[in-house]
Write a structure and sequence with these properties.
315 residues; 2 domains; six-stranded antiparallel β-sheet; elongated; disordered N terminus; Protein rogdi homolog; RAVE2/Rogdi
């Protein structure tokens, strides 16, 4: 195997088989360490080819993938570029039928929530839905989309005519793109932790008709590819309960028994209901993020093969 083949062989271009690439690069590194001056000259030419050709090929591939991710967030309706498709999702739970409902998602906005809640003690069924003039922005989706668009801007800042001079320059760009992609992924995989007073004071509580009872709180969030609804049933603590009052902190999901104070009243969570629905296009975007991060890392790995094992150091 020639040094040229060592670097440009098919195994080094695999996207999905990291284990093969790991061993393959290790083999290449061993050969480079023992390379003659002539072989090192060939390697230097190969590195220049990588900067001139392969880097741009990876950038183009990344742009194509992230444009698909961006389109998933926008969800344009066919022939109506200014509008976005509305999708209805049925809420479900494997543990309870206390809460049922249908959510309508339009891009990053929850435009309708039609919910039935069976009260635990009375078995009375409450029905409430968004007012027609209200919709709830899913901040996690909005933030993830913004990070994807920032990654695309970084990639488009280096067109085909741009000449990368060093591996460090490529790595700097890859690090910046990976930072945006990691932030985008984390926004979908890590819901915000809130205190119950923060949930109670949210404008979400004022979006329903009929208005939510004072002993009901709701919250929506994204967890991976799922759109989740949490319903808290509360009871008011008596004024003489101060001795045992221990307010809870921040959490994605508060358990029964959690206490909090709001509007000079003290409450305790009596029941918690979590229901969710799978949003397929959110799963698509998470897959796109994973593939893109792998592509970025593999390009960095190829550059490290050169920079670590021969005298010509592009840093």
């Amino acid at each position: 195997m020639t040094p040229y083949a060592c670097v440009s062989g098919a195994a080094a271009h695999k996207v999905t088989n990291n284990l093969i690439e790991f061993h393959y690069f290790g083999h290449c590194q061993a050969r480079m360490a023992a390379a003659s001056p002539a072989e090192r000259a060939v390697l230097e030419e190969e590195f220049k080819w990588l900067l001139r050709e392969e880097v741009h090929a990876v950038l183009k591939q990344l742009q194509d993938i992230l444009k698909e991710a961006s389109r998933r967030f926008a969800m344009p309706a066919a022939g109506l570029e200014s509008q976005m498709k509305q999708e209805n999702f049925i809420l479900g739970s494997s543990t309870t039928d206390q809460v049922k409902g249908v959510l309508t998602l339009q891009g990053e906005a929850l435009t309708q929530a039609d919910i039935n809640l069976k009260m635990t003690k009375s078995n009375q069924v409450l029905h409430f839905s968004f007012r027609e003039d209200k919709q709830w922005k899913m901040q996690q989706i909005q933030d993830a989309r913004n990070h994807v668009n920032q990654a695309l801007q970084l990639l488009s800042s280096r067109d085909d005519s741009y000449h990368f001079k060093t591996g460090a320059e490529v790595n700097k760009l890859m690090d910046a793109v990976m930072l945006q992609l990691t932030r985008a992924r984390n926004r979908l995989t890590t819901p915000a932790s809130l205190t119950l007073p923060e949930v109670a004071s949210s404008s979400l509580t004022r979006m329903f008709t009929p208005p939510l009872p004072g002993d009901i709180l709701v919250n929506f969030y994204i967890n991976l590819s799922k759109l989740c609804l949490i319903v808290y049933q509360l009871h008011v603590l008596q004024p003489n309960s101060n001795k045992n009052f221990k307010p809870g902190g921040s959490s994605v999901l508060h358990n029964p028994g959690t206490m909090f104070e709001f509007n000079n009243l003290k409450f305790e969570v009596s029941h918690v209901h979590k229901v969710e629905c799978v949003v397929p296009w959110l799963n698509d975007t998470l897959v796109f993020f994973t593939i893109s991060l792998q592509l970025c890392q593999q390009l960095k790995d190829k550059i490290s093969v050169f920079s670590s094992y021969w005298n010509y150091r592009p840093y």
